[in-house]
């Protein structure tokens, strides 16, 4: 579903059967389900279902979910001959998505194994006049579909990988079994490990203080990854610094008016190995941009562009065949043509790997013939010393031969080539390009191996998480309301409102929702090329009992066609209105499903302090929780029995929702939440707080007038000094708290600039001799600043935002006057001078902090603030700020 199109995931009418209905709305999509008998869910990939008891009547079922790209093998080991007829006792095995049903009776001798590719339900039925002893044992194993291939490699009892992935240098098996005993070819040559380590050390020594290699940063990052000298999996801070520098260089490049195909290709390859999605680089689709540039180009296209598109699993433009054909068929005497041909072979090898076989590609016979002839020609070019020309050409042709599967070919001298390359690495004239091209070879790799990067377990798989991805998105956004309706009578309704990019799909909205709240967790698989959602909120499709998830899509302006309840429960429309400046909300429920909410208004310029006093439950966080949602914002705070809640401070109306849903009836969930609404002055640090929640200015303390209800503001006024204990301890605790909120992948997200400034001001010395963690913080600040500069053509940067970046750069000893060619001080000053509205004081403060003279209108603007009769507390904040 994109834009205003819609996709029906599962839709059919069944007379007399209760159903789930699932409905998405652009500004609203809904799910609902009937309450039916549920089966026991078997979650292990291998197990036994067994029964042995005396009974006269019973029916019990078990559901075994089968993940996508897996199959299940079931074997009935035994079934006790109870003497009951087949209609009185049977074991039935049904397969979801098909009409296949297998039934076994206790008298059957045929117990052939069953193989299925979808979820399986096992039902044991007994109906007798008197109690009879019945028993059976059924064993099952779930394996990857690859295990059905005779030539597949078995990682363990449940997982297999294709044979061509064995000994390819990438651990495709979780236990690494596919790479055990693979020390052949390049890796078996004497001196290779030592030379690789020395080359890695040399490359790292050339790294600058900014943790990059200037314009060569993307290529160096790729070389280190292919040499297995860096994993970029988020666990090593030094690698995070290199990864962040790659982001920084990419963002700087995007600020330039144009990028060549080769430049863009190198950035994409570097993002791929660091597990940053080049399709979602802070709202920029770099892969699409590269493909469009290639398609629109009237000139020769470097084969690196095609290799990069293949590495990113992007289809090639129609002109790819002609371009590569012209390169491979060239008889030019220029030596660099051999370099281009080597790169073209590597690109075609990537395409062959994607198609599993070069002969199965759609490139056409002529280019396949050239591909094979060029490989043979390369082998014939080898000199006695193992080279194919100069060191650069030798490295490129070696990568081409490795990528095309020639590592073990006896027609060329691999050992001689590797020894030649090692000799060049050890020469006094070694340079960056030599090291960059040879390093992957010493690990048996080529640039084609970027296509095999596995980011499934990496925290940056989707830009760290969907929330960060949306925060960083630069394009237009829309609001989507996602609802789950459970039960024919809508016994339980869950609704979440999210602001997402306009091109977000329904599945991406669902992914974001499950990150925000675990009750939206869902399971799916690909069936016939389409996404099939078979479980949401721990409720699975169950054809036998008539439970299904269905998807509907509608627009905000046309919801009449949907007959479901569409009000958002978090909006407070059906919630209990709570009045009073303080109070306690409690709710205890013992039920299978329950939802109740309370709506609390926060007066303008006031704030609410919320504390969870207690939360106990018989179920885990997936089934019960308390959600605190802001009525006018996207933010939701979800708490459950095993989560810790710090004091939550909100500045606007909010809703508290208690929900309980259990697959079994009568579960308990109790909570107690305390809230207090403070007066406006309580948001300022230099105020005095009375016990009744009101706050006073320091000038009102000991002024002879009791203004606190208990007179505390006039007690102990003989000495008006304010004694502050344990100041250093509080400061250190504050720094530690701030650092705990920091992420090595995303800093403090949209508050990175303020976090850096606060950390600097809280330190007892300047940011000199930074440790690795602090260097990464500075790097994140630089990236965030560049992202705002990227936004300036689409969204105007406010003087407030620019001021906070200038303050943070100044505090961290960066130069805001020459920030990657941008004079942010000049930019800020121009914004202030041309502004038609009153400039906020923070802009003048930032200019002053940077040593810049204030514009001529500064005195007038600041005086206008000072002359205001401060009826509004936020104006006091501005006056105090100055």
Automatic annotation (TrEMBL):
PROSITE patterns: CUB, LDLRA_1, LDLRA_2
Gene Ontology BP term (one): cobalamin transport
Domain CUB: 27-143
Domain of life: Eukaryota
Keyword Protein biosynthesis: no
Keyword field: Cobalt, Disulfide bond, Secreted, Signal
SUPFAM superfamilies for this protein: LDL receptor-like module (SSF57424), Spermadhesin, CUB domain (SSF49854)
Disulfide pairings: 155-173, 167-182, 310-350, 690-708, 702-717
GO annotations of cellular component type: extracellular space
Positions with a binding annotation for cyanocob(III)alamin: 339, 390, 532-533, 549-551
InterPro entries: Cbl-bd_prot, Cobalamin_Transport, CUB_dom, LDL_receptor-like_sf, LDLR_class-A_CS, LDrepeatLR_classA_rpt, Sperma_CUB_dom_sf
MF terms (GO), sorted A to Z: cobalamin binding
Pfam families the UniProt entry points to: Cobalamin_bind (PF01122), Ldl_recept_a (PF00057)
Localization per record: Secreted
Protein name: CUB domain-containing protein
Natural source organism: Larinioides sclopetarius
């Amino acid at each position: 579903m994109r834009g205003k199109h819609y996709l029906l995931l599962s839709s059919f009418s069944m007379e007399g059967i209760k159903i789930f209905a699932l409905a998405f709305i652009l500004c609203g999509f809904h799910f609902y389900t009937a309450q039916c008998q549920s089966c026991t869910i078997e979650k292990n990939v291998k197990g036994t279902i067994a029964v042995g008891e005396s009974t006269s009547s019973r029916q019990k079922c078990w559901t075994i979910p089968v993940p996508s790209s897996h199959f299940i093998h079931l074997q009935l080991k035994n079934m006790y001959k109870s003497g009951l007829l087949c209609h009185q006792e049977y074991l039935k095995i049904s397969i979801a998505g098909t009409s296949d049903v297998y039934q076994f009776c206790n008298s059957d001798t045929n117990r052939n194994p069953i193989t299925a590719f979808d979820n399986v339900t096992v039902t044991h039925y007994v109906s007798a006049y008197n109690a009879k002893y019945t028993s059976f044992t059924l064993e099952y194993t779930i394996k990857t579909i690859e295990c059905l291939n005779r030539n597949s490699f078995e990682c363990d009892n449940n997982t297999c990988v294709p044979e061509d992935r064995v000994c390819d240098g990438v651990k495709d098996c979780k236990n690494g079994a596919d790479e055990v005993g693979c020390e052949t070819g390049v890796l078996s040559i004497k001196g290779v490990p030592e030379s690789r380590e020395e080359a890695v050390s040399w490359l790292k020594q050339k790294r600058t203080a900014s943790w990059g290699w200037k314009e060569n940063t993307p290529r160096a990052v790729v070389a280190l990854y292919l040499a297995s000298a860096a994993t970029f999996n988020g666990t090593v801070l030094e690698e995070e610094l290199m990864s962040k520098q790659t982001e920084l260089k990419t963002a700087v490049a995007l600020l330039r008016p144009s990028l060549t195909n080769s430049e863009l290709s190198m950035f994409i390859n570097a993002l791929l190995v660091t597990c940053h999605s080049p399709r979602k680089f802070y709202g920029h689709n770099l892969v699409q941009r590269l493909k469009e540039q290639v398609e629109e180009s009237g000139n020769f296209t470097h084969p690196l562009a095609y290799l990069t598109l293949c590495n990113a699993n992007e289809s090639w433009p129609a002109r790819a065949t002609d371009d590569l054909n012209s390169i491979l068929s060239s008889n030019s005497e220029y030596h660099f043509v051999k370099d281009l041909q080597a790169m073209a072979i590597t690109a075609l090898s990537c395409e062959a790997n994607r198609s599993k076989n070069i002969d199965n590609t759609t490139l056409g016979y002529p280019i396949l013939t050239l591909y094979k002839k060029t490989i043979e020609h390369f082998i014939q070019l080898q000199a006695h010393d193992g080279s194919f020309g100069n060191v650069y050409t030798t490295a490129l042709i070696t990568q081409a031969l490795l990528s095309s599967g020639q590592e073990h070919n006896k027609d060329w001298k691999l050992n001689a080539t590797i020894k030649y390359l090692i000799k060049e690495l050890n020469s006094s004239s070694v340079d960056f390009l030599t090291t960059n091209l040879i390093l992957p070879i010493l690990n048996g790799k080529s640039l084609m191996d970027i296509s095999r990067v596995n980011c499934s377990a990496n925290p940056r798989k989707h830009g760290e998480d969907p929330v960060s991805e949306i925060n960083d998105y630069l394009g237009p956004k829309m609001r989507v309301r996602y609802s789950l309706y459970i039960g024919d009578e809508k016994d339980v309704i869950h609704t979440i409102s999210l602001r997402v990019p306009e091109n977000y799909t329904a599945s991406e909205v669902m992914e974001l929702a499950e990150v925000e709240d675990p009750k939206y967790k869902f399971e799916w698989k690909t069936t016939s090329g389409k996404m099939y959602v078979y479980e949401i909120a721990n409720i699975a499709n169950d054809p036998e009992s008539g439970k299904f998830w269905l998807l509907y899509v509608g627009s905000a302006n046309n919801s009449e066609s949907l007959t479901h309840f569409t009000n958002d429960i978090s909006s407070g429309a059906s919630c209990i209105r709570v009045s009073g400046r303080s109070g306690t909300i409690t709710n205890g429920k013992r039920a299978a499903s329950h939802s109740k909410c309370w709506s609390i208004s926060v007066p303008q310029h006031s704030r609410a302090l919320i504390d969870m006093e207690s939360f106990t439950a018989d179920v885990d966080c997936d089934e019960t929780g308390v959600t605190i949602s802001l009525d006018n914002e996207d933010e939701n705070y979800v708490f459950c029995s095993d989560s810790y809640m710090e004091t939550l401070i909100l500045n606007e109306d909010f809703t508290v929702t208690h929900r309980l849903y259990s697959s079994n009836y009568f579960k308990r969930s109790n909570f107690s939440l305390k809230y207090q609404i403070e007066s406006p002055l309580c948001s300022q640090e230099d105020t005095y707080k009375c016990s009744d929640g009101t706050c006073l200015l320091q000038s009102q303390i000991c002024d002879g007038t009791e203004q606190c209800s208990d007179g505390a503001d006039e007690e102990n006024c003989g000495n008006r000094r304010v004694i502050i204990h344990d100041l250093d301890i509080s400061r250190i605790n504050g720094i530690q708290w701030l650092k705990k909120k920091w992420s090595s992948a995303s800093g403090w997200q949209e508050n990175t600039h303020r976090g850096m400034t606060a950390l600097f001001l809280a330190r007892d010395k300047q940011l000199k001799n930074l440790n690795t963690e602090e260097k990464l913080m500075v790097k994140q600040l630089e990236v965030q600043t560049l992202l705002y500069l990227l936004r300036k053509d689409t969204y105007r940067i406010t003087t407030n935002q620019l001021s906070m970046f200038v303050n943070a750069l100044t505090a961290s000893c960066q130069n805001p006057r020459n920030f990657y060619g941008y004079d942010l001080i000049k930019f800020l000053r121009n914004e202030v001078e041309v502004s038609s509205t009153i400039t906020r004081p923070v802009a003048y403060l930032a200019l002053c902090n940077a040593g810049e003279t204030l514009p001529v209108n500064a005195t007038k603007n600041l005086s206008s603030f000072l002359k205001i009769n401060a009826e509004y507390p936020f104006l006091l904040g501005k006056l105090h700020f100055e």
